[in-house]
């Protein structure tokens, strides 16, 4: 059962974050928002970007953004503890519309 759907408005330096950083921050923020509901339960997160690979191996996160590496590491640690990441069933259709994600 979906708990919700999130979008994010970027402020200040966040506007210059890479696509990877924005996806990680949006996922991190959504998980924090539902924590009162889910408490310690694992949450399944469906994304259109391959963040499960980035979370598993922090060294593969592209270094194109402006977020501090410690901040990204904090997001990744939280996502690893609180969620199970998988691809959205709409991934291919969204990528046709949005273009390839690199």
TrEMBL record:
The lineage's top-level taxon is Eukaryota
Q: Which GO terms describe its molecular function?
A: endonuclease activity; hydrolase activity; RNA-directed DNA polymerase activity
- InterPro entries, per this entry? DNA/RNA_pol_sf, RT_RNaseH
- Where in the numbering of this chain does the Reverse transcriptase RNase H-like domain appear? 2-81
Q: Which SUPFAM superfamilies match?
A: DNA/RNA polymerases
Q: Report keywords, A-Z.
A: Endonuclease, Hydrolase, Nuclease, Nucleotidyltransferase, RNA-directed DNA polymerase, Transferase
Q: Does the keyword Transferase apply?
A: yes
Q: What is this protein called?
A: Reverse transcriptase RNase H-like domain-containing protein
Task: List the source organism.
Answer: Gallus gallus (Chicken)
């Amino acid at each position: 059962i979906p708990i919700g759907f999130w979008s994010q408005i970027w402020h200040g330096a966040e506007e210059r974050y890479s696509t990877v950083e924005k996806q990680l921050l949006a996922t991190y923020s959504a998980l924090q928002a539902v924590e009162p509901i889910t408490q310690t339960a694992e949450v399944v997160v469906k994304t259109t970007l391959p963040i499960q690979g980035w979370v598993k191996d922090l060294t593969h996160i592209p270094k194109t953004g402006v977020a501090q590496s410690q901040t990204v590491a904090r997001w990744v640690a939280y996502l690893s503890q609180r969620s199970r990441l998988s691809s959205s069933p709409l991934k291919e259709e969204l990528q046709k519309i949005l273009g390839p994600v690199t």
